Amino acid sequence: MATTILNNVLKKLKSPDFILAEKELDVFSDMDPKSVSTFLQEWKGVNDENKTKFLQELYEHYLDNTLVSFEALGVALIKDDLASVRASALQLLDETEKCAILPDLVKMITTDTDENVREAAVRVVGNFVRLYEYGDLDDLDNTTAENVLLKAYHDEHSKVARAALESLGYAGRDEVYGLIEQSFEKKDTAWQVSALRAAGRSADDRWAGQILNGLNDADSDVCLAAIESAGELELKLARQPLLDMLEEIEDVEMYEAIIWSLSSIGGEDVRTYLEALIANSEDEDLIELIEDALMNLTFTEDLESFDMMAVDPDEEEDLK
Questions:
Q1: Higher local confidence (pLDDT), 304 or 43
Q2: What is the DSSP string of 66-118?
Q3: Domain spans of the chain, in order of start
Q4: Which fold has domain 204-310?
Q5: Rounded Cα–Cα distance for residues 76 and 96 (Å)
Q6: Is the pLDDT of residue 320 over 70?
Q7: What per-residue confidence (pLDDT) applies to 319?
Q8: Which of left, alpha, beta for 204 (phi over 0: left; psi -120 to 50: alpha)?
């Protein structure tokens, strides 16, 4: 990265009502150590309001653009004096595989005075556990990661505790099932949502009943969480209810979530239905989503075909 370009953008951050174009936000993607050092020197002169605004814009750009990575900047700012900066920096690390920051995350979860920071740190650790369980992160101290999440489940602030439950959904520990069950029994809607999310991440269909019930819940947040969890769990029993919901749902977020979940569940009529939706739609964004869902459906169908062709070792022995 050219230092001159970076300095010019940093100067804008110090001015009132600054506006950065997308190409200027791209300057902060994949920063090398020298650029990070330059940034941190200039960062000291940016006022708190501008710091918060800048990181919000950077995060929104990160969500909209899969080609950018602000990981280096996020790691550099997780120890910032300003709580809003620490929380925003952690959001930029939601897909990081940098296990070296685990000790920092543990410290933040257990000692940081700001609940937003603790919540954000919990979610990063949760992603570490997810990657570990999927076999994509061999160098993680998973025991430490899971133990700090279990401790965070008892945080005094509900938002931190609920984030911990959702993150623990990825863990295969027996005590987690009890926590999910306890959370389902709570009458609080927010806890119902978190329990559904944790259930969806558990890879265990013992929660099928709760998820199916959630699809009929009058609360939109609970219903959305159930839709997403049905897809994550690849719950076959949810296929027809979800297809039926497509006929009557008006909420755009739920509608899109149903499409994606169906593509993860697969099975009879799903491809035909999604292809019909494309043929009858003029919404370019929706068409793009359905095309992505059809690609995901192909992946789902390929996995199902592989499973059907797999031969049990005992059966294979009998065939000899």
A1: 43
A2: TT---HHHHHHHTT-SSHHHHHHHHHTTTT---GGGHHHHHHHHHH-S-HHHH
A3: 204-310
A4: Leucine-rich Repeat Variant (1.25.10)
A5: 13
A6: no
A7: 47
A8: beta
